[in-house]
Specification:
The chain has 293 residues and is an alpha/beta fold. It has three domains: 23-35 and 104-230, 2-Layer Sandwich (Aconitase, domain 3); 46-101, no CATH class; 239-292, Aconitase, Domain 2 (3-Layer(aba) Sandwich). 36% of the residues lie in helices and 14% in strands. α11 (254-265) links the parallel β8 (238-243) and β9 (273-278). The protein is globular.
Amino acid sequence: MVNHSLLALPSSIRQLLPLHRRTLATTADASTSAAASDVSARTPPYPKLLKRLHAVRQLLPNRPLTLAEKILFSHLDNPEESLLEGTSNGADIRGKATLKLKPDRVAMQDASAQMALLQFMSCGLPTTAVPASIHCDHMIVGEKGADVDLPNSITGNKEVYDFLESAAKKYGIEFWPPGAGIIHQAVLENYAAPGLMMLGTDSHTPNAGGLGAIAIGVGGADAVDALVDAPWELKAPKIRGVRLEGKLSGWASPKDVIMYLAGKLTVRGGTGYIIEYHGPGVQSLSCTGMATM
């Protein structure tokens, strides 16, 4: 539906605004953007991941793996080096091993993407090593409502948006303009998939786990490692299992579950851990509910 209140804005601003409530990723010219319509760029490389997981199982023949570990270990650049060195030959991996990983995708928000792109440009590569996207949502200040805040943001940050859009077009990065949606929701709806590993320069990145992905929030410099195909290092996380029984009822929501859990664990209780939910209670949760948790 066209937002007719936008028609009163100056034409120079109207040209920058999406006329729909939600728009798709694009570059300067969506008709020439192969990335915007290429489904393969949004699909994890499953044959490669399964082959790598098979190699991991040969290294750790007697060690059960949780789903989170299967996804992480299938993205190792060198499984033998990461899993066996300094871990008593694979007996003590969690919290001890240094994993050198090759993520499948990178998502950047507009504030942190600037430095990440400047660092990437200095590498002299013609395109990013993995599919990537830029989402212009963090620099929009919510104050008086979308009809006022969005054009004010576009006017005030025009230089930044122009740079991000031109860099996206040059290096084959999908570009989500201001007004196209919030980064973590756009990632969940368009990029998340079971088995995917991605880095996102946003604190809400992990909610892509609602679709069975391993999504990790990082700084801009960490994102550059993945963009140039350098192994990204992570201390092997510990795994905390949370078994869910029964179903939510009444006014209870997934947010109540995670708020209760956060109250029990505190922030420190989640540091260095992947929290993995299991049990019959998971089956009744929606994708967005699992993303919230």
